[in-house]
Amino acid sequence: MTPVYLDNSATTPVDPHVLEAMLPFFTEIFGNASSIHTFGQRARAAVEEARERLAILIGASAKEIIFTSGGTESDNTAVRGVAYQLRGKGQHIITTRIEHPAILSTCKALEEEGFRVTYLPVDSTGLVDPRKLADEITPQTILITVMHANNEIGTLQPLAEICAVAHERGILVHSDCVQTLGKIPIDMKTFAVDLASFSGHKLHGPKGVGALYVRKQVQFKPLVVGGSHERKRRAGTENVPGIVGFGKAAELGLEHLPEMETHVKGLRDRLQRDLLQIPGTTLNGHPEFRAPHICNLSFDHTEGEGLLISLDLEGIAVSTGAACSSGSLEPSHVLIALGRDKHHVHGSLRFSLSRMNTEQDVDRAVEVLPQIVERMRSLSPSYSAD
Ligand SMILES: Cc1ncc(COP(=O)(O)O)c(C=O)c1O
Domain 4-12+257-385 falls in which CATH fold? Predict the structure, then answer.
């Protein structure tokens, strides 16, 4: 049985070309990128080339990119960095109820330090209303942080409108773009955010490496201090193999971008259409404004964890929402924010695809899942009572 991996929002397989690009940096090109000698200079050149590749993918200047240890660190750095930099001007931050825990936990920690945070509601499809956001702005507001695509349901936020509202009042905007890098075009020349977070392992790069985009002239207080790496914006010896891998993944991401709208979205849409044929199945997220690789469905009278385990026994990997909250059986804060009732929240699964998935992967999920749902429902007292 060939395993079917449909959990690409959690992480993606490393592209073999990425691995190949990384390998020499563990062995012969092992230098510290800050060293003056040739070993160091070769490592430095590779780091700068990777920075250039990521800059090309997002339409930015290489100087605007800071390498980090991943999306979580980028989110922490952006929110704390701006908050501490601007705390003399104001202490109010606006975010949404459906952000990744990397943002929500940072905001909670800042509240304990005296900042005020507004958590915007979303509508039943997961969209933030820019007018509601405008109503929450006060002279104290220093930062608005709204994710690009939600990692559980894929809904894409109207960032252009959000930036217009914020910038009219001189407020900085950060966006967690971890789920959209290499999935939909991002061009910082038109995409008006001031700071953006990215992660390597979501686009066939290695884990433990990410980046923070910081628009020229935007000031923030570094989170990690020490040496003068990353132009004094993030201290610590660079993870050269990881950065090289991320750079290669960014280069491949640009090359494969057109496939996202065709191959990946095509597979996702077929999977969604066929699974929605199962009676009592509903879509969570926006039907249209959605990242091309994500589909989150609720199956009435089932339980997500049970479905996940049954699928896993069939060799199919999916998720019940965010990887970091599964295992805890905590209901998804995202689905709760959409106003979904308890049954929908508990009986939900996230399917997330990548360019490495095939028609056969979708066929297999579509073949297996209806029977699993049926079996679980036949055991559910609430189902037979209906
Ligand atoms: C939207 C979003 N933000 C941040 C992160 C954290 O990224 P990393 O795993 O690189 O720390 C993730 C990963 O799950 C994510 O999906």
Answer: Aspartate Aminotransferase, domain 1 (3.90.1150)
